[in-house]
Specification:
Elements lengths: L3 H30 L5 H16 L3 H18 L2 H17 L3 H18 L8
Helix pairs in contact: 1-2, 2-3, 2-4, 3-4, 4-5
Length: about 120
């Protein structure tokens, strides 16, 4: 029984990782097929970035956050620009690149303050 518990734990973790990869792959497939450049595409890119970040795949998370940022700038989607900079700050922070994280957090803060956008509201 003592040998069975570690094996079950390994199988559970492996299965969870596979399901996460399938989810990311599905989102990438949807994003690749969705050619319209709008906030829906921005949200897809952001979700893919978040899922990569959540699975500790920071380099891929940065690529998708950068793509989301570029799209938000192209659309002049101010809230999206701020969200993308904030997400980049989060990713760089997890990579222990604190100067780059701070730079992105401050850009996000500046955008949110200038446009009076509140990400979190207490009710």
């Amino acid at each position: 029984m003592k040998r069975l518990l570690p094996l079950l734990l390994i199988l559970t973790v492996t299965n969870f990782a596979r399901s996460q990869n399938k989810k990311i792959d599905s989102l990438i497939h949807i994003a690749d097929g969705y050619k319209k450049e709008d906030t829906t595409r921005f949200n897809l890119l952001g979700k893919i970035s978040f899922d990569f970040w959540n699975n500790d795949v920071q380099d891929s998370a940065i690529i998708y956050s950068d793509s989301a940022l570029s799209l938000a700038k192209k659309l002049n989607y101010i809230k999206g620009i701020g969200q993308a900079y904030n997400n980049l700050g989060l990713i760089y922070s997890q990579k222990d690149n604190y100067p780059e994280a701070l730079k992105n957090y401050l850009k996000a803060l500046k955008i949110f303050e200038a446009s009076r956008i509140r990400l979190i509201s207490a009710t």
